[in-house]
Design a protein that fits this description.
Length: 311
């Protein structure tokens, strides 16, 4: 079972194999690194440990260049637990942590995390103003007892698998391409929140979720599934601002096509799968026009889900 750690929980007492990165989306390239960590940990009788950051460092250090995230923290933690690593350290990233020099960061790995082996991508940069690189890490690591192993890029169809590429594809609604790079369906784990009842008023009740404000996902209507307690429900999902009804707040609204599920607002978490992008959001001339479009969306979703494998 994966143990979740924060800086206040350190130091740990068991020697580890470490890797460090943002791991947004935990795509196939990331999973190769995690596999290497686990393989070496098993061989050397060490514990596997992943260090990741929240929020994304670029969001703090260079918000103008920060674009968006593939998944939220809740989903990232879930994905790492599925990988069966021993420890996941979530560093609440701030400017104080950023000011650690490259040398200080390597010593942090050694002293606070008992890191014996460090596995990272070959282009890894770290420390204040990214002053450290792989060669520096190897040199200093060998002097303080950390073996540094660089990993080559993982490719798909000769192209490097990267979070940046996945963000771009998500922002265009190209979910099939995203799935190939993630090695899984794209989903989010979100907490149920209380809605305003507008969907129920027009005959299409929804389960309402409040996503992070920096999600890469293209706004619009999707075919998908909602999963709760290992049961899967067919759904039409709207991610956006509901321009016909109010257009003010951004929600994920999930309308179940055939079934109902009882959920406790503010207590329940659900997993929402986004299978296919249907259409962009638009402001309809009337609520009646919106209702007619939703009926068409539901019919299209049924057709899509007839041929799509249930998750």
């Amino acid at each position: 079972m994966t143990k979740i750690l924060h800086l206040k929980d350190l130091p740990i007492t068991e020697s580890t194999v470490c890797t460090v990165g943002n791991f947004d989306g935990l795509h196939l390239g990331h999973k190769e690194i995690i596999k290497k960590v686990k393989d070496i940990a098993k061989k050397e009788n060490l514990k596997s440990l992943v260090i990741t950051f929240h929020p994304h460092p670029r969001k703090i250090l260079n918000p103008k260049k920060y674009k968006c995230s593939i998944v939220n923290l809740e989903t990232k933690i879930y994905l790492f637990k599925k990988e069966n690593i021993d420890y996941l350290l979530i560093v609440e990233f701030n400017k104080d942590f950023y000011q650690k020099s490259a040398f200080e960061f390597l010593n942090f790995l050694k002293n606070a995390l008992k890191c014996k082996v460090l596995i990272v991508g070959k282009d890894w940069k770290f420390g204040f103003k990214q002053e450290g690189d792989i060669q520096y890490a190897k040199k200093v690591g060998s002097s303080i007892g950390i073996k540094v192993i660089p990993i080559e890029d993982i490719k798909s169809n000769s192209s490097r698998i990267s979070s940046s590429l996945i963000r771009e594809l998500l922002s265009k609604g190209e979910l099939k391409k995203v799935e190939k790079l993630l090695g899984r369906r794209y989903f989010l784990i979100e907490k149920v929140v209380k809605g305003d009842g507008k969907g129920r008023e027009i005959g299409f009740p929804t389960i309402n979720l409040k996503p992070d404000d920096d999600l890469c996902l293209k706004k619009g209507v999707y075919v998908g599934y909602l999963e709760k307690d290992e049961k899967v429900y067919k759904a039409v999902i709207n991610y956006g601002n509901r321009p016909t009804l109010d257009g003010k707040k951004t929600f994920i609204e999930v309308h179940l096509i055939e079934d109902k599920v009882d959920l406790k607002t503010e207590e329940d978490y659900v997993k929402v799968y986004f299978i296919e992008y249907l259409r962009e959001e638009k402001k309809f001339e009337s609520v009646e026009d919106l209702k007619n479009q939703i009926k068409l969306d539901i019919q299209k979703a049924k057709e899509v889900l007839e041929v799509e494998k249930v998750v």
